[in-house]
Amino acid sequence: MNKANSNTSDLAFLKVIARYIKSWLIFFNERFSPLTHIPMIVLFCFGTATFIDLRENLPKIYASVLAFLFFFRLRLFDEIKDYELDIVINPTRPLPRGLLSTTDLKFGIIICTASEYFFLHSFLPESFRFWLLATIWSFFMYKEFFISSLIKPHLTTYATTHTFVTLPLTLSLISGMNENATIQENDLYVAIGAWFVFNIFELGRKIFTKEEERSEIESYSKIWGQSGSVILVLTHSLLATLAFIHAYPFFTTTLPLYIPSIILTVSGLFFLFSKNSKRGSIYRLSSSIYIILIYLLLTVSPYMGSHL
Question: What is the DSSP string of 223-254?
Answer without folding.
Answer: HHHHHHHHHHHHHHHHHHHHHHHHH--S-SSS
